[in-house]
Each structure stands twice: as structure tokens, then as C-alpha cells.
Design a protein that fits this description.
The protein is α+β, with helices and mostly antiparallel strands and 289 residues long. It is built from four helices and twelve strands, in the order H-H-E-E-E-E-E-E-H-H-E-E-E-E-E-E. The chain folds into two domains: 99 residues, Nuclear Transport Factor 2, Chain: A (Roll); 115 residues, Roll (Nuclear Transport Factor 2, Chain: A). Strand 1 and strand 2 form a beta hairpin.
Amino acid sequence: MIKTMLLVGLMLAATPALAQTPQPPSPYAPLQDKPSCTRAELVKATDAYVAAQKNGSLAGLPLDEKAHFLENMATVEKDKGLWNTSLPIAHAQSFHDETRCKTFTEVIVTQGDHHYVIGTRLYMHNGKVIRLDSLVTDKGDWLFNANAYLKYTAREDWKPLPAAQRTSAAEMIRGANAYLDAFSDKFTDIPWGTPCARLEGGAYTDREGKPDASCNIGIPPGVLYIVNRDYLIDAEKGVINVYCRFGNSATGAPDSHVFRYIDGKIRLVHTISVVPGPQADDNGAIVRN
């Protein structure tokens, strides 16, 4: 028996490891396990991105020569993305994660014939943007209404928090996952706070500004898995942003969820979902057909 085991061991040691087929090199800058950046670099990059979207040119961004460009979670050529279109931005706000070297910028466009709500991630390393990833929503997308998105965002408080009111990164991730897991498991423990307001595409849960407003309004029935979760945490603002897909990991709806924590509880939620669905009106109510 011992001889047999030794023989098998020698055979395994001599057998080439599986999955050793050489892969062609990626044409894109690699995502880093532990990227390097400063908060100042991240802030400068988001300022440059907002200016770029206003001007319709990425010339001012510190792009890596192999930067990867994505729109609605699909690779696009640099000259094909919406960032090449000059947009009259009505409002923009950004969040910065100097640990993971990621940023998230929310852009609202309400002027002209074409309205947008855009969420853009920048991934940075050594002072360069190695990945630009935009989610672009407009008319026809889930609960879309840019006028309502602007109206309610403008009245919310997203300023940096005093240190005593901040929430640990681990707890923000746990709470965000509890919410996203609830779409497949209705028994998760979501740390809702009061008051709490949810802005989804343009639909708003606290249109009357009630002091006891709740986000605990239930989860749609059925089992839906939310996958490909990618986290960004702005500790100063008590914000976690999750990029994910609703459903299949390759074809599920591209989505962004932003959760604002105060004293360990979720108080604000913003979502951008690139999937067809009902619309919202200018007051943030869902239009029922």
C-alpha cells in the first residue's frame, strides 16, 4: 500500500499542472492586487473626469497608455464612449477610496433633449488611470428620470462625516452585501437607519421629507442573485459603492449601488441600473402603466 501511494505521488509530481495553456497577453493595463495612490491623486482625477465629460475629451485625464475603457460593463474603444460627447452637467459628486485606489463619480444631465444619469469608476495605480468604467442610463432604463434624480440629490447631505459618526469598512461591506443578498435570501440583516431615503433611477422613497422615513420597504419576491460585486469605500463620507450585475455574471444587468452610512446605519441609497423598465416622473413617483 505504501509503495502504491509513493508511486502515485511520484506520478502526480511528474505530471504537468492542469490549465497551463499559455494565454495571450492582455492589451490592457493590469488591475493591481494592491494598487498605489493618494487621495489627492484620486480627487485630481475625478475633477479631470468631470471636466472631460463637460468638454467631450479625455485629454486632461492622466491615462495609462494601456488604459481599459468600458461602458455598461462592455469593453469599448476610447473614442467610442459617451465621454467623447460634451455634456451640460447639472450636478456631479465624487467618492474616493485611497485604499483600493478607485473613484466613483455620479453625473446628472438635465439640459437639452437627451438626459442622462451616469456613474463612472476610475481605477488608478501610480498616478495613472488604468481603467475607466462608465454606467450610462437614459430614457427607458430602470425608473429613469434625471430631473427627479437631480431634485433629490441636491437636497441630500453627502458631506464628510465627523470621525465619531463613521462606519468601519468591514461593516459597510457587510451591510451592503446583506442588502444585495436579500434579493435571493429574504432573511438577511440589513442595517437600515432612520430617516432613510432611496433614489432609484429617479424614483424616490421620501418625497415628503418625513423625519421617520424608512428604506425598509421590502424586496421584490423571487430569487435573484446579484454577482460580480466590486467595492469602493469612501471612509470620510461614509459611503460604499458597489458595482455588480443583477443575474448572470456575463449578461446580467449592469448596476451601481451607493450606500451612505451614518452611525453604522444606512441613511441614503442611490442606484443606477442599465436595464429597461418602468419610468419615474419629475416628482420621483413611479409611472404605472
